[in-house]
Write a structure and sequence with these properties.
Keywords: Glycosyltransferase, Transferase. With 618 residues, this protein is of the alpha/beta class. Helices cover 41% and strands 18% of the residues. It folds into four domains: 143 residues, Rossmann fold; 193 residues, Rossmann fold (3-Layer(aba) Sandwich); 171 residues, Spore Coat Polysaccharide Biosynthesis Protein SpsA, Chain A (Alpha-Beta Complex), CATH 3.90.550; 79 residues. It is built from 25 helices and 23 strands. Helix 8 crosses helix 9 and helix 24 packs antiparallel against helix 25. The longest helix is centred in the C-terminal third of the chain and has 28 residues. About 2% of the residues have low confidence.
């Protein structure tokens, strides 16, 4: 079988679309897989064994119809069985037409069924933290019905010579190998995509003032004047940490240098995408006229974070076309002061730098089990002491409080072994990710303030963490209590929740703000002993909780594009009540089962009622 994948775009698109070649290689190991790209992008494809041949679209093919025709005829001679067109423009349409392939796949447009055998609708809203651009590319594989676990992460490949080159360059320029190295993408692919130099200098100063690191700038020789301006805008002490002349002469050298860095911060563009493909943490600043949902890939609020002015000042974008926003990009950029996203940047830096040098970090001695116990709180003065006492076996206890108005913080601070932080509440997922970013240990145990561990469960947790061949995460079955009475039914009989996990293998999905979802890389096990959940102390507090969940979930539904139909507003709440009270045997829990079933149904009604209000307001 011979397959041609077409992606005639810039570096970021070409790199991300290699996941098509990677998955095709797994599905068809004996196939010949060719990749048609611009000649200027081949640096990000070197070493990729999923690709057999590069079909280069060169400048001469743009300038000369005769040269383009010769290229098309050469493609015709290759006799491809399948063509996947990820570019979907006139040049690639002609390539597909001349290819003579039996199967031709691309994105759906009104007339494309004439040219393509299979078309897929372009995804408009991302369904995961992979990012819209990656979900769209992967959707091109849907017509093939591949029976494989899809690879979703593009990669860059370096030779040993390139790795040694970067190490030698760092050594020659006296970079301290005990310190972490931060790459700053100071200039975007165009001026319209370049964060103002005064602001980027402020960010560089902030990093230098708070972390003992080496700092490199990403720029090319013809951008040296702007790079020098940014450097000169930095404080004198900051300049001592910047190695201004350590840059690559070409794209491969940049990749090698980036491979030696620990993270990247700065303008959206090819540098950020290459850093991600090297598995480096990234903090991306998007231009006001770019829609970040396409290129905000692998967002988890900790390892990969992005910011956009629309996140903070959405009124500037209401009823504005992309063209109108682009015309005003300079004035909009000036509104995008780094103070707006200071807290997000701090979370990112704390997690990925921690103000600990490489040498010192390797010397950290974890105490007993290398376990951090985490709790997020708001007005939990009645629960906080008991949950802290339950976590007394953990190596560290971290409380992240959403500015409680009761004595929660005061009580927590009275324990010498407890670290207390206050962080503004955005949503549950963001709050939990922030708590994770503060932890020092490889294992995380997350408890809600109203959850309790039995002695048997504590012992099982300890043995699990000490076990060398462990899973990446563990489910806990829960016993739910309402007014100190156990709920045996009402949907609670099989309730389980992820509470114990390895820090490096997990993060909370920011797309799920209520009943937040933990994304796990690796296998999941289940602990034998049960967690006790005292969530429902009385009717009024539980009612308030369920109404609050309804309000928060309305925002999730708005992002997903859900409509507040009659079915959602009225039929779904009724079904939820019947499901919990009859099907899940809530009736056997007596009055408590009736209350639980009713309030869960109420929460769904509130969710879609508020969604309707949001839709009308917009």
């Amino acid at each position: 079988m011979k397959i041609l994948v077409i992606q005639q775009k810039m570096i970021g698109d070409v790199l991300l679309s290699t996941i098509l070649c990677d998955n095709l290689r797994i599905a068809y190991p004996n196939a010949t897989i060719d990749y048609m790209v611009y000649e200027s992008t081949i640096a990000v494809l070197q070493g990729n064994k999923s690709i057999d041949n590069l079909i280069l679209f060169e400048d001469k093919h743009k300038k000369s119809n005769w040269e383009f025709l010769k290229l098309l005829l050469a493609i015709r001679k290759n006799k491809y069985d399948m063509v996947i067109d990820a570019y979907a423009k006139i040049e690639s349409y002609l390539t597909v037409l001349f290819s003579g392939a039996n199967q031709k796949i691309s994105f759906s447009k009104n007339w494309q069924k004439i040219l393509f055998t299979d078309v897929v609708d372009k995804i408009k809203i991302p369904k995961s933290n992979l990012g819209l651009i990656i979900e769209q590319r992967l959707s091109l594989l849907n017509p093939l019905n591949l029976k494989i676990d899809l690879k979703t992460f593009p990669k860059l490949y370096l030779t040993s010579e390139e790795v040694n080159f970067a190490k030698s360059l760092f050594k020659i320029n006296n970079l301290d190998s005990t310190k972490k190295t931060v790459m700053v993408s100071i200039i975007g692919s165009s001026l319209e995509k370049t964060y103002p130099s005064k602001f980027i200098s402020e960010i560089i100063d902030r990093i230098a003032n708070n972390y003992d690191v080496n700092m490199l700038f990403n720029y090319i020789p013809n951008q040296i004047e702007l790079a020098r301006t940014i450097y000169n805008n930095c404080q004198k002490e900051t300049q001592t940490k910047i190695f201004f002349d350590v840059i690559g002469k070409n794209l491969r050298e940049f990749i090698a240098i980036m491979n030696e860095c620990d993270l990247i911060i700065g303008n959206d563009g090819g540098a950020i995408n290459m850093a991600k493909a090297l598995d480096k943490p990234s903090f991306t600043i998007f231009s006001p006229w770019i829609d970040k949902k396409g290129w905000a890939t692998f967002e988890d609020g900790i390892t990969h974070v992005s910011v956009h002015l629309n996140d903070y000042k959405p009124d500037f974008f209401t009823y504005k076309t992309k063209k109108e926003i682009k015309k005003k990009h300079l004035s909009l950029y000036n509104e995008f002061n780094p103070n707006l996203f200071q807290k997000k940047l701090d979370v990112f830096l704390n997690h990925n730098l921690l103000n600990i040098s490489r040498a010192k970090k390797t010397e950290i001695q974890y105490k007993k089990y290398s376990l951090s116990g985490l709790v997020i709180t708001y007005n939990e003065e009645h629960n906080i002491e008991k949950v802290i006492e339950d976590l007394d076996f953990a190596d560290e206890i971290i409380i992240v409080d959403s500015f409680s108005t009761d004595n929660t913080v005061k009580i927590a601070q009275s324990y010498k072994n407890v670290k207390v932080y206050q962080y503004p509440f955005e949503n549950y997922a963001a709050q939990r990710n922030y708590a994770i970013s503060l932890s020092l240990n490889p294992w995380i145990l997350f408890l809600d303030a109203d959850e309790r561990l039995t002695p048997a469960l504590k012992e099982e947790i300890i043995q699990t963490v000490l076990e060398k061949k462990s899973h990446s995460a563990y489910y806990f079955f829960r016993i739910s209590m309402f007014k100190n009475t156990k709920l045996n039914f009402s949907g609670r009989q099989t309730e389980k929740i992820l509470r114990l996990f390895k820090k490096e293998n997990a993060y909370y999905d920011l797309q799920k703000t209520v009943h937040e979802k933990l994304i796990i890389s690796g296998t999941i096990g289940t602990l034998k002993h049960k967690l006790i959940h005292f969530s429902y102390s009385n009717y009024s507090s539980y009612k308030q909780k369920m109404i609050r969940y309804g309000f928060l979930k309305a925002g999730d539904e708005l992002l997903k594009g859900t409509n507040p139909t009659v079915f959602n507003l009225y039929i779904r709440p009724i079904y939820q009540f019947i499901y919990l009270y009859i099907i899940r045997l809530g009736v056997l829990d007596g009055k408590n089962g009736l209350i639980i079933s009713y309030l869960n149904a109420l929460s769904i009604y509130v969710r879609f009622r508020e969604l309707k209000k949001m839709k009308l307001k917009n």
